[in-house]
Predict the structure.
Amino acid sequence: AKSYNITLLPGDGIGPEVISVAKNVLNLVGSIQGIEFKFNEMPIGGAAMDLSGVSLPEETLTAAKQSDAVLLGAIGRYKWDKMERHDLKADTSLLHLRGGLKVFANLRPVLVLPQLVDSSTLKKEVVEGVDLMIIRELTGDIYFGKPKGYGTDENGNEIGFNTEVYAAYEIDRVARIAFETARKRSGKLCSIDKANVLEASMFWRKRVIAISVEYPDVELSHMFVDNAAMQLVRNPKQFDTIVTNNIFGDILSDEASMITGSIGMLPSASLAASGPGLFEPIHGSAPDIAGQDKANPLATILSAAMLLKHGLGEKKAADRIELAVLNTLDRGFRTSDIYSLGNKLVGCKEMGEQVLKSLDAKTHAS
Ligand code: IPM
Ligand code: MN
């Protein structure tokens, strides 16, 4: 039988709860498809800080690099958040992990499921049928640019500063992934930047246009980020594939998640040129509901599906998981973030059990 090594990084807050559910789903789909998963659970974030004093221990990064794929829960703990504000020190473990794995292309699909069209705060006509893919550059930009830090300016004012910088090769490689993705979807790619003001964005646009020559069959358009933020809620169906830089992609993907109704539904895949991919829900650690069995595990379960499809090339197993999630929603099971009247309100564990049940039922039916 096929066998894969998966690094699990539960992390903080609701991370361990959603990862434990996703692990059960992977085990069951593996037994159905004849795939064996060897899980290696490692600490990261506040949890690692408690254990070893660092948020991304050397052993965790090494284990992740040596595995076939990495599944992450969430990072960030209330306790450490508070400390950040005093010490002006952020938890950079996630950035170091992304940088260490060189996962430069972050795929964030935004899909409005027919079962959940009523859970969006936007009008049904606006969100119904939305199916877009945000491709966010993940290892460059103001997140990683130097110089950065704290200091004093020439007038003696205390300052904090970061640098937005992109090298041509960083833009080119993520643009290629975006063109390839758009080609497989509707053939439309929109590049989002702030090229009316920022040199880094003018350069971004120049490189994207240069790469577009390799993809004459893909229709490329450009939009300024402020307009894009507005267009995403005005008429999201005008978009298919979006490519943008690290910081704009961070902000626009949170905004786009609300088209679907809940950030608790959105998975993501972060891919490198070679080596393991990193798969994680786009939501955070939600310390306010941690340990209460209230979290929605579906974003992590769908991230496990992306891990199978994009990370391991196990498309059949991935499809099975996606079908099981749809079937669970069809049967009316809802966590509180996606609950609407007439459905069955369940916690994280029960939602996981129901997905397992759907997986099982589908198998016996086919
Ligand atoms: C995300 C998160 C991270 C980011 C934070 C936690 C570093 O918001 O994955 O979108 O800004 O990339
Ligand atoms: Mn974010």
Observations:
- The domain at 121-140+168-260 is CATH 3.40.50.2300 (Rossmann fold).
- The pocket of 3-isopropylmalic acid (ligand 1) is lined by residues 94-95, 250, 282 (CB under 6 Å).
- Residues 15-33 form the longest helix (19 residues).
- The first strand starts at residue 2 and ends at 11.
